[in-house]
Amino acid sequence: MGIMNWQQLLSAKRWGYESRRQDDQQDARSEFQRDYDRLIFSSPFRRLQNKTQVFPLPGSVFVHNRLTHSLEVASVGRSLGRIFYNEMRKANPDIDRELPYLQEVGNIISAACLSHDLGNPAFGHSGEAAISNYFTVGMGSIFEEQVTGAEWADLTHFEGNANALRILTHPFAGKDEHGFALTYSTLAAIVKYPCAATDGHIKKVHHRKKYGFFQSERAVFDKIAAELGLVKDTEVPTGYKRHPLVYLVEAADDICYNIIDLEDAHRLGILHYEQVESLLLPVCRDEHLKERLQKLADFDSRVSLLRAKAINTLIGECATVFTKNQDAFLDGVFGRPLIEAVDTDLVEAMDTIEEVSVKKIYNAQSVVQIEVAGYKVMNGLLEEFIPAYLKQDRTPYDTKLLALMPRQFHTRQNDAYAKIRSVLDFVSGMTDLYAVELYRKIKGISFPSLD
């Protein structure tokens, strides 16, 4: 068995409430189902309905937003976890007695999937780029001397993954001082890149391709890692090997966005039905599917069937890879995403989908337009709020501007990093529409209604 072990990795202990009695599985909901429900009913999760996934938010044609994407990822993630558990139970009929929380793997993964995009700002990856560039080439570059080198690395490489952990654990003013108080296992399962910004951005090392926690949450993740027995990455000071369930959360996300972006592109007329069919049929692995498709007169229904079949195939294949390579995951030596470790024909089919997506979808005019507009909006908000919040002697305008920041985003700390981080909490949490509306008002482009 690997260096890490499921007995320790699967913990119902709650962040901030470690001394409370853990669920004895006799209640209506397990501890991990409670995680899922807390996220579903939370404000940050609801705000995902108005955050761009890829395409501009819907007008007359509905496309996915961050919320619908997260729900679908959670559904796929639960299936991946359930298949893994069923295979483990087949191999060992006594597994429920030896590892009572293993049957909860599907719930842990689905909760982590729900929260995997919580930290993403408005306007998708364009929002992340705008925040980073404000500090690297924008007005924010003047603040470099006011923070440490490690803190500056956070600011110049804003990362939605790290921001999700912060949202879930940070003691925002007026809120529960323990954040969402999720279980340790759910928190660990969302951290795809378990290192600080100073050790991330290594493209050839999969678990350090980006980074997973800000300096403000470094101690938080250290505590989670120690509790669950995560393996230290000896190559870097702040790094760990992934919690094994991260691979299943990542696979659920990869499966959904690769396949479902094609469905949205078809609805918007960016891709013709024949193009979508040629891309998805090789993934479906169903020799009778072509006949079923021809019986459906509605092209949207055909695409829906192709999407369902493709996702089902990838779920089964990714779960098989995870089960067969369990020791490698527990040793922390599995160095690529599950979707790249399935059979060669599927990998080639997914590579083709990615190539077409980059060329036809992610560079479509409507997508680029929202990215450019979003970049301007996010940068404009930071130019207003960060200097005002950092000033010692604020002007009347600064005071009125900061009154627009809700109380929860104000900090009692006086250091520049904490104050900047607070503004980033406020701005990154905005929905697309709210960010545009606030930007227009503070720039004098529009005025509040007097009704």
TrEMBL record:
User: Which SMART domains did the record assign?
Assistant: HDc
What Pfam families is this protein classified in? HD (PF01966), HD_assoc (PF13286)
Gene Ontology BP terms: dGTP catabolic process
The protein's GO terms of the molecular function aspect are: dGTPase activity
Membrane-spanning segments: none
Q: Which domain of life is it from?
A: Bacteria
Residues in HD/PDEase domain copies:
62-267
| Keywords, comma-separated and alphabetical | Hydrolase
Read off the PANTHER family from this record.
DEOXYGUANOSINETRIPHOSPHATE TRIPHOSPHOHYDROLASE (PTHR11373:SF32), DEOXYNUCLEOSIDE TRIPHOSPHATE TRIPHOSPHOHYDROLASE (PTHR11373)
Per its record, how is this protein called by name?
dGTPase
- Naturally occurring in which organism (per UniProt): Parapedobacter indicus
